[in-house]
Amino acid sequence: MALRNILVFPDPRLREVAEEVKVFDEKLKILSEDLLETMYEFNGIGLAATQIGVSKRILVLDISEEKNEPQVFVNPKIKILEGEETAGYEEGCLSVPSFYEEVIRPVNVEITFNDLEGNEKKIKPTGLLSVVVQHETDHLDGKLMVDYISSTKRGRIRSKLLKLKKQKK
Ligand code: QAP
Ligand code: CO
Predict the structure, then answer these.
(1) Which domains does the chain have, with CATH numbers?
(2) What is the pLDDT of residues 65-81, one digit of tens each?
């Protein structure tokens, strides 16, 4: 397993639309392990391949208290179910470090995905699991949590993170 570097907003690679996974091989398993290791290292609850500069449709998460329930979603597809019930969560993102913003999303969704063997799975998550899968699937489409807030706020976050990056160099 290996730790990977996490891209930070406004890195243009975070805007790429990731490619569907068609081959379920050992390489994919290693990628999922690297994603999990990197997510745990930086105390995340979710991480998408796009965030480590890999343009493939795979994401990992762990919303358990003990951090011992890793989940892997390959080629996730989200269907919003009727009811149109929404909820606002204070969201964070490892690619937007130290910023937290409320994002309103539908709560009742159906997720179809593949596991690491390529088997088709379907779940109907609610609450935090639903929110994290939607947040991470957004990454695979080049979308970020800051796209849901005002452009004024987004611009402020952008310049603060650019400034931090310059200081590190
Ligand atoms: C997505 O985000 C999420 O700024 C996962 O300094 C999070 O794991 C969706 C993190 C909350 C819904 C609700 C962020 C760690 C982790 C930071 C994360 C930071 C350290 C973010
Ligand atoms: Co994120």
Answers:
(1) 12-168 (3.90.45.10)
(2) 999 999 999 999 999 99
